[in-house]
Amino acid sequence: MLRELLKRLKIAGLTIDAVYTLPTNVAGQPQLVGVRVVDVSLTSVTFESVGSPAPELITVAIDKIVAIEHPPVP
pTM for this structure? Predict the structure, then answer.
């Protein structure tokens, strides 16, 4: 269900307000505010930051995502 939502957000090209994830073992949590989906695989999703001078790509395991704040999906 979440994977399908992420695919729809990618197709629509919508900017996601915020993505909330479970804690990771990586120092510092990724900033997933104002991002767009660029790829959805079976187990992960890659986001790009919107409005940055140099696009930053962040890949997150789908099972680590707990909530997404997004505009309505057409």
Answer: 0.86
